[in-house]
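We give this protein:

***
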Amino acid sequence: MGRDTIADIITSIRNADMDRKVTVRIASTNITENIVKILLREGFIENVRKHQESNKYFLVLTLRHRRNRKGTYRTILNLKRISRPGLRIYSNYQRIPRILGGMGIVILSTSRGIMTDREARLERIGGEILCYIWGVLPGMKEQKWIHEGLITESLPNGMFRVRLDNENMILGYVSGKIRRSFIRILPGDRVKIEDSNN
């Protein structure tokens, strides 16, 4: 099985951010360049430059810093890979999940290129859900939302699609005691979904 380029860049950025590194270098490909452009435009990174080394091109990302009176502190990035080579996840534009009520973004691969969930809804096109991205600041209290909804579709690996009472469609997954007890959740079941910024 080939390398998962998107998972690799997500891991590289996440690890660099957790280690408080100022910059991180990732391989430059068409898909990584498009994803990084979105990260820069949405304010998740400070800067990006292209670097050549031994006939190979890399992208050097400067992670975002913020300042207050006590000094420098940094944005903590949260990146989550969704669709994978062995499990492709697709959605039409009406069912694209909203991350933290719109505070985060979904990156999709569509017939018109890689774009955010907001752009896909405006264009009225769906696609493959590549990843979720959101950010929080150190010291920010964990925010949790509890939603209720109806399971409309069961997916592999303990995931399922839920229509919330506000008519939004989101992806959920089984965790905690329910997963350990092998409790089955089927389409038509009503569930409570906990959504947090961690």
